[in-house]
Automatic annotation (TrEMBL):
<dbReference type="InterPro" id="IPR012577">
    <property type="entry name" value="NIPSNAP"/>
</dbReference>
<dbReference type="Pfam" id="PF07978">
    <property type="entry name" value="NIPSNAP"/>
</dbReference>
<dbReference type="InterPro" id="IPR011008">
    <property type="entry name" value="Dimeric_a/b-barrel"/>
</dbReference>
<protein>
    <submittedName>
        <fullName>NIPSNAP family protein</fullName>
    </submittedName>
</protein>
<feature type="domain" description="NIPSNAP">
    <location>
        <begin position="10"/>
        <end position="101"/>
    </location>
</feature>
């Protein structure tokens, strides 16, 4: 079975500390997605856990893994992002855990 390496797909799963789900949703809706757009980082989908577990799932797309790593380096050093993060965490950290999974779409899947 052969997998395509023509694009980089990254699944991010964020698990929030108790009581911090609203904080991550506000940060994403008011700031993070706009910063991603400004930095030309492509989010292809975003989900909230249906069962009430404080988790956020989203998919990023890059031409390859190297481009993704470069974009995240730029994002982490962005002054606007650092100020948004600082302000949003004044009452405590938001993320308890972050899982990052790099994937290639299977050539045979056309969904």
């Amino acid at each position: 079975m052969r997998f395509s390496e023509s694009e980089g797909i990254e699944l991010r799963i964020y698990t929030m500390h108790d009581g911090r789900m609203d904080a991550i949703l506000e940060r994403f809706s008011k700031h993070t997605l706009g910063i991603f757009e400004r930095l030309e980082m492509k989010v292809t989908d975003l989900w909230i856990d249906q069962t009430g577990i404080p988790k956020l799932y989203y998919v990023m797309e890059y031409k390859d893994m190297e481009e993704g790593q470069q974009q995240w380096d730029t994002f982490r050093n962005d002054p606007e992002w650092n100020e948004v993060k600082r302000k949003s965490e004044e009452s405590g950290p938001i993320l308890e855990k972050m899982d990052v999974i790099y994937m290639n779409r299977a050539d045979f899947f056309k969904g």
